[in-house]
Specification:
alpha/beta; binds zinc ion; Rossmann fold; about 35% helix; five-stranded parallel sheet; 8 strands; 9 helices
Length: about 325
């Protein structure tokens, strides 16, 4: 049962988070969604923060973009919201696994995926210290937006790992548990410390609930950051991974945007990759051994001659949310 009236004061936020130039660009392009994708430009010295709900999302969406930022003198940091540990089918495919997965199996699977992420990021030429793992519950993020928001109720318990808080080694803000406002605070701390000039986050239309929720938590965290640092601005760019059968209905070299989905306020933005960048992205994805075993066809579908992004219109976020647009999709 949802106790909506018991929620604390809501956050209302975020119209001005985009820098003035980006905002103006976004407005100008509102009516351009029918046009062919524009090119995403990557300024020299970009400080890129990639928000990945699970290990591998950053590589699927932006393995090329991360290389480009690195090659042009920028800095990349990836924050993984979950360890991707809530995947029973993946656990069952591990060598030597027998019987139904236990909580220890799921935790071990998460550790394995963290190591894979570090290996994949290293394959791009980045230091593995670019990876930050928050260890929030795989498959549970949308519930933190709505029901498990604050200390007014018990923290969410992962049905997989049986944990109610991240592993101690992954906690950034003391006393963090599986609550929505705790995740917002951790993200705000990362953004405030790193000061990204570009944040890459999932679109709300992504059909995986964790991806959809990630977008709301980033927006909420940006509101907190701007409250403390009023002059902070950043270029918010979005990506999508799960949307119907995209991108597997088309096996060409080029990655076209998902049919039926508009490109946000900017229209779709294309980042052409060099053959070497595409090759390196493929090799980096190979480091996700557990995921290659479970669904190599899915991962390979994102290895193309370009990546696609978009910029959102200025938006407003209210958390906690009485109805989760992510859990209910
Ligand atoms: Zn994911």
């Amino acid at each position: 049962m949802m106790r909506a009236l018991a929620f604390p004061a809501v956050f209302v936020a975020l119209v001005s988070l985009l820098s003035p130039n980006v905002y103006a660009t976004a407005v100008r392009r509102t009516h351009q969604h029918q046009q062919p994708p524009q090119t995403l430009t990557v300024p020299e010295g970009t400080r890129l923060l990639v928000v990945a709900p699970h290990p591998d999302d950053e590589m699927l969406a932006a393995g090329g973009l991360m290389q480009r930022v690195h090659e042009t003198g920028g800095t990349v940091r990836v924050v993984y919201l979950t360890d991707g540990d809530g995947y029973p089918e993946g656990v069952k495919q591990l060598d030597g696994h027998v019987g139904p997965p236990t909580a220890a199996d799921f935790r071990g699977y998460g550790r394995r995926r963290r190591h894979e992420a570090e290996a994949a990021i290293s394959r791009l030429g980045l230091d593995k210290s670019a990876c930050t793992f928050l260890g929030f519950p795989d498959g549970g993020l949308c519930k933190l937006m709505r029901t498990y928001w604050s200390e007014r109720r018990a923290a969410y318990r992962s049905p997989y790992t049986r944990l109610v808080r991240p592993p101690q080694s992954e906690i950034l803000v003391p006393d963090t548990e599986y609550r929505g406002e705790d995740l917002t605070q951790e993200l705000a701390q990362i953004i405030g410390d790193f000061r990204p000039t570009m944040i890459l986050m999932p679109r709300k239309e992504d059909q995986h609930a964790d991806h959809c929720a990630a977008r709301f938590f980033v927006a909420d965290a940006l509101t907190d950051v701007q409250r403390v640092h009023p002059d902070f601005t950043t270029d918010v760019v979005t990506y999508i991974v799960h949307f119907n059968a995209w991108p597997f209905q088309d096996e060409g070299q080029r990655l076209d945007p998902p049919p039926g989905l508009r490109g946000g306020a900017s229209g779709w933005l294309r980042l052409p990759l060099t053959p070497e960048e595409t090759r390196t992205k493929r090799l980096a994805l190979r480091r996700y051994k557990t995921q290659m075993r479970a669904m190599d066809w899915f991962l390979d579908g994102f290895v193309r001659s370009n990546e696609v992004f978009s910029r959102p219109a200025p938006f407003q976020v209210v958390l906690p949310s009485r109805r989760s647009p992510c859990c209910d999709q």
